[in-house]
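The instructor's notes for this session suggest beginning with a concrete chain rather than abstract definitions. Hand out the sequence below and ask the class to guess, before any prediction is shown, which regions might be ordered.
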Amino acid sequence: MRLIFSYMTKENQKPTHQDVMPSMAKFLSDLWFEGDFREQPHYLSEIFRRILETDLGDDKELRSKMMECIKTSEMLAETLEPFSDKQIQKACSKILAA
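After discussion, reveal the predicted structure:
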């Protein structure tokens, strides 16, 4: 999976390994404000299930991409599941302030 974060790059400057954590913290912080990310795997499953019921769902490459999206979304939700929204927000703020 390839993620692009405009936060970590400045004009004519390549990102470094030190840019990873602040970029991930910004991503999680932004995601936290976008809605209930914990429900994303369910939303994706419902959307993809409906697509699979159409002719478009016969495309094996598309099916594979849909399954990868669901898996990635599930992994994110499972990783963050033990933490409250407040804990996630606090951790992101702390990393961004560092």
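Then share the key points. DSSP finds four helices and no strands in the chain. Residues 20-97 form one domain.
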